[in-house]
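[job 0412] stage=complex_fold ligand=adenosine-5'-triphosphate status=START
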Amino acid sequence: MNNFKFIVEVENLKKYYGNVKAVDGVSFKIKQGSIFTLLGPNGAGKTTTLEIIEGLRTPDSGKITIFGRQVEKIGREEKELIGVSLQETNLIGNLTVKETFSMFRSFYKKGLRVDDVLDFVSLKDKAKSYVDKLSGGQRQRLAIGLALINDPLLLFLDEPTTGLDPQARRSIWDLLLQLKKQGKTIVLTTHYMEEAEFLSDWVCIIDHGKIIREGTPEDLIKSIGGESVIE
Ligand code: ATP
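[job 0412] stage=complex_fold status=DONE, emitting structure tokens
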């Protein structure tokens, strides 16, 4: 792999849908081993940005570099170092949790042992449950576990805690902090300011397809005032 200063670099990314400027000139850089958060309201352009970086949508223009290499040129081996959890994961409801992990594991040459991932995301006791019988929080832990199965260096998680109760959200936060300790880089989207504040090394606030502020959570809170709420 090339030497790189930033694990992901995005430069002037644009994606328009008709007259909707979903992503309108977004640039940022992500340090290896950090938690980087795109924070913004519904329709701000978070998912579009993430899915372009993941290669799921084509941008109108802009440049993306991952692992120091232009994204169009990264090979299969480097792709296997990326883990993705989409906003909605369509899973097969009548497979068990363990069967689902085994299926995802089979997509990759290298990766973690299914039992170890089940343990890490605290789903061991649900191994034999059908996926469509899981609670919202268990489902999100499953989605994160699936994104981890290839033992990625770089992890993209699109709104991993939306709609969860505080306890389930907290358990996902703990997981993400453990992953950071293991040296993984996490790219996160969220609506929740307190989530961005608690987890992130760097936050970009995005609205109407543009980054309107960025910085460490401490700097952002100072600059916008502790009492402010993002709506
Ligand atoms: P949310 O928090 O609700 O998921 P988001 O910040 O992820 O929102 P995006 O899903 O990226 O926002 O959407 C940004 C804008 O682009 C929205 O106005 C959305 O309606 C529009 N958009 C996204 N995908 C498409 C598409 N495939 N066709 C047309 N418009 C789209």
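The beta strands are 6-17, 20-31, 35-39, 61-66, 69-70, 82-85, 154-158, 185-190, 202-207, 210-215.
[job 0412] exit 0
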